[in-house]
Amino acid sequence: MRDGEDGGEDSEPGRLEIVGDVMHDAWLGIPELHAGGGILVVLATALAVQVLARRVVLPLALRVAQRSRTSWDDVLAKHGVLARLVPIAPVVVIGRGVGLIVGLDAGLVQFVERMALAVIVLVAVRAFGALLTAVNEIYTRHPQALGRPIKGYLQGLKVLAYIGAAIVVIATLLDQSPWYLLSGLGAMTAILLLIFRDTLLSFVAGIQLTTNDLIRVGDWLEMPQFDADGDVVDISLNTVKVQNWDATITVIPTHKFLENSFKNWRGMFEAGGRRIKRAINIDVSTVRFLTPEEIERMSRVVVLREYMAAKTREVEAHNRAAVPADAADLPVNGRRLTNLGTFRAYIEAYLRAHPRIHQERIRIVRQLHPTPEGVPLEIYVFTRDTAWVAYEGIQADIFDHVLAVAPEFGLRVFQAPAGSDLARLAGDARPAAR
To answer: Can you tell me where the transmembrane regions are (predicted)?
Structure first.
């Protein structure tokens, strides 16, 4: 063989070179890249693609999103969905380019390709998680989101996505099929159920709470077991956050709402009336029949005129028919008007004429079982205003009036003896404090 016949000088440029039995394709116009130069070219290309995607493509896409009339693309940009996809470009270049480098060990090439695929899966699942977060924010802008939150479902989907990505990454690194790993997952079911017990219970509880419309963001919630009394500010997969009236935050596991009782005040707000249920105790010793003079005076009370006239006619008619004339002078014979009954009728008439009392809801003034503290006279009505401050003001005004007007009926509200009362009974001549 002549000199030069087996060398590269007589070879035709651009032809493929045979190294052993392996044929290597040309890449980027360079016929044959040896290992070191090929690695540098691949890394330089990946870096250039990264810079191009980060400095040019991404800002351009964000600028387009800002100028568009729709708002959903702004939310995607806000949560970095596009930014999280940028690393995929250089990883693809490395994963595809490493196979074109001449002289690299085949095992090393496969390892780098598997690593690149694993990184792509991780980057993609992070972008998918950001996408789900953006979807939740977009959904919360619609009115129906207040009663039908989907945050728990999206968080559950995100968990499944991360679990699936982990399985794919492990299978890729081990060069096995994902179904091979899933087939062995059954033996780990008990362990997984133990690890994700609260998450699974909360996920099921979240579905039931949402489906049955038991809790919404913004509801006033009371759950004494967890010292929770305030507004629901967030419903997630695992927890429900309640901001108490003292501005503290109580975090309650979602599944606890199916295990414990709680009070939701939403129905009160939707009904448009807030209940007043409070009693005052009347001193039993002050309960008596009304005298004719008191009946005449009570008849001049505007809200009692109809009641007094009707009740007087009813009592007189009954007594004429049932009580003999020679026994009519005894109060025990026949029927008589009492100051307590008249006082109760006055409160009913006063509430009926009150402009801030809900007249379409139940309205009762009733006597309860007598106690050592007197006869409880309970007011059971609903206010038109459900706001807390307004409600408390209405309730206070009503009972201020009731307490002040009771002596007009000869009644005294029961109160346990104070120190001044005991001192007066003991004959203490010292002047009372002013």
So the answer is: 33-53, 81-103, 115-135, 156-173, 179-196
- Measured distance CA(304)–CA(302) in Å, rounded: 5
CB 159 within 8 A of CB 192: no
One-character DSSP codes across 43-96: HHHHHHHHHHIIIIIHHHHHHHHHHSS-SHHHHHHHTTHHHHHTTHHHHHHHHH
| Burial of residue 213 (number of CB atoms within 10 Å: 0-12, 13-18, 19+) | exposed
Q: pLDDT truncated to tens, each residue of the chain (434 aa)?
A: 444 444 444 444 443 344 333 334 444 444 444 566 777 887 888 888 888 888 888 888 888 877 877 777 777 888 788 888 888 888 888 888 877 776 667 777 788 888 888 888 888 888 888 888 888 888 877 766 665 677 767 877 887 888 888 888 888 887 777 776 666 666 566 666 677 777 778 777 877 777 677 888 889 999 999 999 999 998 877 789 999 999 999 999 888 888 888 999 888 888 888 999 999 999 999 999 999 999 999 999 999 999 999 999 998 888 888 877 777 778 778 888 999 999 999 999 999 999 999 998 999 999 999 999 999 999 999 999 988 899 999 999 999 999 999 999 999 999 888 777 777 777 755 555 44
* Count of CA atoms in the C-beta half-sphere (13 A) of 170: 11
The count of C-alpha atoms lying within 13 angstroms of the C-alpha of 141, restricted to the half-sphere facing its C-beta, is 7
Burial of 319 (0-12, 13-18, 19+ CB in 10 A): middle
Q: Does an H or E element contain 163, and which? A: helix 151-173
Residue 121 in tokens: 């899966």
The Cα 219–Cα 205 span in angstroms is 17
pTM of the model: 0.55
The domains found in the chain, sorted by start residue, are 27-183 (no CATH), 215-264 (2.30.30.60), 274-324+332-415 (no CATH)
Looking up tokens 């120190």, which residue turns up?
419
